[in-house]
Amino acid sequence: MITTSDGTMKAAVWHGAKDVRVEQVAVPRVSAADDVLVAVDVACICASDLAEYRDGPHVIPVGRPHRLSGRTAPITLGHEFVGRVVATGSGVRGLSVGDRVCGDACIKCGVCFWCRRGEYNICSSGGSIGLHVDGAFADYLKVPDYTLHKVPDGVSDKAAAVVEPLAVGLHGLRRGRFEAGESVVVVGFGMIGAAATVLAAASGAGRVVVVESAPQRAAAARIAGATDVLAPGDELRGAVRALTGGRGGDLVLDCTGRANVLPTSVELSRRGGRVVVCGLAHDPTPLATDRLVYFEREVIGSLGYRHDHEAVLRLLELQKLDVGWLFAPAIALEDIVTRGFEAMDADTGTARLRIPVEIGA
Predict the structure, then answer these.
(1) 314 located within any domain
(2) What CATH number does residue 49 fall under?
(3) The last residue of a domain, from among 271, 301, 331
(4) pLDDT 10s digit of each residue in the chain, 361 long?
(5) Boundaries of domain holding 216
(6) Same domain for 16 and 85?
(7) Which residues make Cβ contacts (< 8 Å) with residue 50, sequence separation at least 6?
(8) CB-based contacts of 220, cutoff 8 Å, min separation 6
(9) Within-domain flag for 308
(10) Which of 13, 189, 259, 317 is least enclosed, having the fewest CB within 10 Å?
(11) Residue 217: which CATH number?
(12) Do 234 and 265 belong to one domain?
């Protein structure tokens, strides 16, 4: 553990686009009854972290404080992590010092209409660890107890660190009302596409078709459980239909984050099919709504996850998910800019979709 006698620790702090500094900050203190202090062992770099580094701010509050956390930049990044509990607030139950834990990144108010319905991922004032409060690219992380899940002994640290993005994939399948035996089409094989692929395959999909242009990622899709891998192009719709009895996919998950791809994803679904949008695009989409109405297709938004982490942990514990191929070589926190953000930004076609940052391991 890298700490100093003056009560500080190292953290990767976002100050602005292209301005993440590994610097000394104060070790967070347990103050609220539900606070838990975690010594971080491994944290992984997410595409949202990269986006904030490359050309943010996107969601990091600058100028006006976030209405739930009260925070503005500078903010310590990182929300995919595993670590060990080192201190708890007076009201924490079910977690003890020494427990190995991973995290749900959502912070919530707990009292709004959506929180009362259990839909905390769309809390009216919610936010994310590592974007609206300090995150896991640090020696220590302080979070509310409701965000943490115990990690079973049989789950490795690296696998536990990617439970969070795997939960995003599982939530997309659940939002699409996936049923075993259905054909699933995954458009885009970034981390969320990979999560959707591996979870659909493990959950009994009759066919998992991945659409991906990058050769390394296309090859990795087969390792993840894809039965078929197709490149984008003019013949894509016909190729998907040929693989699905002439119908199209029962469930299509658009994981590209590109607004211009959504019309294609819709065309890959069957009559009465469901299209789940997991990737976040900020531009308008040219989707023609008659392609929905004529064929009673559904387009469904999917944000993050809710109540999905325990299922992912159970699948990992049962060795139903192979995620070892996801990881690039580990790096140190001090190298997170050059060997982390810059390396990811330069190699968008890599099949190693997560760079683990070893902090206290």
Answers:
(1) no
(2) 3.90.180.10
(3) 301
(4) 444 568 999 999 999 999 999 999 999 999 999 999 999 999 999 999 999 999 999 999 999 999 999 999 999 999 999 999 999 999 999 999 999 999 999 999 999 999 999 999 999 999 999 999 999 999 999 999 999 999 999 999 999 999 999 999 999 999 999 999 999 999 999 999 999 999 999 999 999 999 999 999 999 999 999 999 999 998 999 999 999 999 999 999 999 999 999 999 999 999 999 999 999 888 899 999 999 999 999 999 999 999 999 999 999 999 999 999 999 999 999 999 999 999 999 988 899 999 999 998 5
(5) 168-301
(6) yes
(7) 341, 344, 345
(8) 189, 194, 325, 351, 353
(9) no
(10) 317
(11) 3.40.50.720
(12) yes
Question: Do 199 and 173 meet the contact criterion of CB atoms below 8 Å apart?
Answer: yes
